[in-house]
């Protein structure tokens, strides 16, 4: 499209539309490949098509994601330089599929016939169905939406043969485990498991259809068009075996999934003696959860309806109290435990994948493939959308640095006559969200969490007051319990309600003691924290973690 005679938004859109209607979904703008998702198979990813791009210059054939993969691979070998492919776009644009096609291409054209190299190639490809099952879900925009970010580094020896790989995981949307908006789904794995579990799992872990569990049925969507959960489950189990996850480890993974599902079925009513206390309606469910977690029914019930609080005395340990929880607090505690187990389970799977894909010999070069959640604008946007859109702002900043800004600076150096192109440098939006001084949105959240930590509503009110400090920016507006950020991809209005609670993201000590005190060694490994540790420092919040991850990335 650099060859268009007239460069305007309209001419670019008209060109993309004309190509799309001709089934040409790929278009170049310089080194950038634009992809328009057709939401159907166009027959352009066959082995024959893949082979045709091998050893070809990028401009010899029609634009294609294979050409990008070919360029990255050949440039790595020719220039002895690491390569990175950044895939960005809004939710539903086809980023995850593009990442898979890049991995498939590199696995197909990279050399090596030894068993260890073939094993690495198989493992790299097996990460796709495995992490999709545990990290993707059906949303209103996308039937296979990534609810986490993934950066895959494929490691090569001096001869260009893949010898290892490593995955870095970013911000799993763990709130999805305990609730989804209407007509969305939980993570795919829960539907695969409940629909297709073996007889052994059904009997041992109490598994039945997804309609019987609150966490999978409340949003009213059990099935996805053109998605066969049973077939996907078979692919997931096969991927686990390829990665080297043992049968015993697979049993433990499913045991944890069952415990999460059953936690969602725990219901509370006001205590018979006090409406400000709660009690569990069906003790048999907590007894079954205790069996799954290999704990005691008494302890499981206790952590769901009460919270242990210690009052310090000077520098010494103080008095310890069991404070009863009302229904809303008990539901929050139940959901918190379910989210914590799933989040740790996902991290364990990524760790286990990385262990299996450790380099078999010396790695000289890497090709990185970044597939991260796309920009989101919904009718109701919360903390998850703010984090996702912040990461996309950071990616846009990289894009500006590597293309527009770098290109124009080169023209200046080479004294080429040209007309400067105005573009929006979104650094001001990144600073608005992440800056410490003056405090940005994340800093305001952290302050609100620290000063009103006991009451989520009070913390949200405190956040509203603190966000007035952001009003100096023309990219920010605060009103009626909401705030709007003018992102590069559009204005997004975020709801204040629940923001600080999601940002706090703390693991309750009671939950930690339950998991570490379990007789189940697998559950213990998911929670390696030291119970004896008594740190006075504020634990990192969710926004702290995503900010660090984004800047490291």
Secondary structure layout plus pairing:
Blueprint: H1 9-21, E1 26-29, E2 32-35, H2 47-52, H3 65-79, E3 83-87, H4 95-109, H5 115-135, E4 136-137, E5 145-146, E6 149-156, E7 162-170, H6 188-196, H7 199-205, H8 214-217, H9 229-243, H10 247-264, E8 268-270, E9 278-280, H11 283-293, H12 297-305, E10 306-313, E11 316-324, H13 327-356, E12 365-371, H14 383-413, H15 427-434, H16 441-451, H17 456-466, E13 476-479, E14 482-487, E15 490-495, H18 499-504, H19 509-516, H20 521-526, H21 542-552
Parallel strand pairs: 3-12
Antiparallel strand pairs: 1-2, 4-5, 6-7, 6-12, 8-9, 10-11, 13-14, 14-15
Helix pairs in contact: 3-4, 4-5, 5-6, 5-9, 5-13, 6-9, 10-11, 10-13, 11-12, 14-15, 16-17
Features:
553 residues, 14% strand
Plain-language structure description:
The protein has 21 helices and 15 strands. β14 and β15 form a beta hairpin. α3 crosses α4, α11 crosses α12 and α14 runs antiparallel to α15. The protein is globular and about 80 Å long. The relative contact order is 0.10. The mean pLDDT is 92.
Short précis:
The chain is 48% helix and 14% strand. By secondary structure, the chain is an alpha+beta fold.
């Amino acid at each position: 499209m650099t060859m268009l005679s007239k460069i305007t938004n309209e001419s670019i859109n008209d060109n993309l539309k004309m190509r799309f209607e001709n089934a040409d979904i790929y278009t170049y703008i310089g080194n950038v490949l634009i992809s328009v998702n057709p939401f159907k198979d166009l027959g352009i990813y066959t082995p024959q098509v893949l082979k045709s791009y091998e050893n070809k210059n990028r401009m010899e054939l029609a634009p294609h994601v294979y050409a990008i993969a070919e360029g990255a691979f050949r440039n790595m070998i020719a220039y002895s330089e690491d390569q990175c492919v950044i895939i960005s776009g809004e939710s539903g644009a086809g980023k995850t599929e593009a990442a898979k096609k890049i991995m498939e291409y590199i696995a197909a054209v990279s050399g090596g016939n030894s068993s260890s190299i073939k094993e690495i190639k198989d493992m790299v490809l097996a990460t796709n169905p495995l992490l999709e099952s545990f990290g993707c879900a059906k949303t209103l925009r996308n039937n296979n939406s990534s609810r986490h970010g993934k950066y895959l580094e494929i490691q090569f020896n001096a001869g260009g043969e893949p010898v290892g790989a490593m995955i870095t995981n970013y911000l799993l949307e763990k709130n999805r485990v305990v609730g989804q908006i209407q007509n969305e789904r939980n993570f795919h794995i829960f539907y695969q498991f409940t629909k297709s579990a073996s007889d052994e799992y059904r009997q041992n872990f109490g598994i039945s259809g997804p309609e019987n569990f609150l966490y999978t049925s409340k949003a009213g969507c059990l099935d996805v068009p053109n998605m066969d959960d049973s077939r996907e489950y078979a692919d997931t189990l096969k991927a686990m075996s390829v990665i080297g996850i043992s049968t015993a480890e697979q049993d433990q993974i499913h045991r944890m999934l069952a415990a999460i599902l059953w936690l969602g079925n725990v219901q509370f009513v006001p205590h018979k003696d006090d409406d400000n206390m709660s009690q569990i309606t069906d003790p048999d469910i907590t007894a079954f959860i205790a069996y799954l977690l290999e704990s005691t029914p008494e302890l499981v019930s206790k952590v769901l309806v009460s919270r242990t609080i210690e009052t310090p005395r000077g520098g010494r340990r103080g008095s310890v109290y069991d404070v009863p929880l009302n229904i809303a607090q008990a539901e929050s505690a139940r959901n918190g435990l379910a989210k914590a187990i799933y989040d740790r389970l996902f991290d364990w799977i990524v760790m286990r994948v990385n262990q299996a894909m450790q380099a078999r010999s010396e790695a000289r070069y890497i090709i990185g493939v970044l597939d991260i959640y796309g920009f989101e604008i919904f009718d109701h946007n919360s903390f998850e959308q703010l984090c996702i859109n912040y990461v996309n702002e950071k990616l846009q900043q990289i894009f500006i640095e590597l293309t527009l800004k770098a290109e124009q600076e080169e023209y200046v150096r080479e004294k080429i006559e040209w007309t400067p192109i105005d573009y929006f440098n979104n650094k001001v939006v990144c600073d608005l969200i992440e800056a410490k001084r003056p405090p940005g949105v994340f800093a305001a959240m952290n302050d609100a969490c620290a000063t009103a930590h006991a009451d989520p509503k009070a913390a949200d009110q405190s956040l509203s007051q603190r966000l007035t400090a952001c009003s100096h920016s023309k990219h920010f507006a605060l009103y009626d319990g909401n705030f709007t950020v003018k992102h590069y991809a559009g204005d997004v209005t975020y709801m204040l309600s629940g923001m600080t609670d999601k940002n706090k993201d703390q693991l309750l000590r009671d939950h930690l003691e339950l998991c570490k005190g379990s007789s189940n060694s697998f559950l213990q490994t998911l929670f390696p924290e030291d119970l004896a540790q008594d740190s006075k420092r504020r634990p990192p919040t969710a926004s702290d973690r995503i900010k660090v991850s984004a800047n490291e990335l």
